[in-house]
Amino acid sequence: MAKNSEERREAARVLAGGGDPSRAPPIFRRYGCTGCHQIPGIPGADGQVGGALSGLQQRVYIAGVVNNTGDNLVHWIVSPQDFSPRSAMPRTGISEAEARDVAAYLYTH
Prior knowledge:
Helix content is 40%, strand content 4%.
């Protein structure tokens, strides 16, 4: 387990396939993630529709349906219905590169 914040950021980058967590905050707002999810460190991200996104790196599953790996998280963010056709999470149009940044952020927090 990474001990300091720089080690956590580097671990998150690796897990997310090179994403940059510093680019994620405006992405969360642009795609409406903040309206449905509680996202640590993002002001106004207090949605109650989707699950809270804190501590994602320690979870075994993503949304309770797929193993928690960086590639699966990125795929889930881009196209959740590929894993769970009845998921309330919509396909937002987020790009894979943006999803990698979001995944890196989530794995950091």
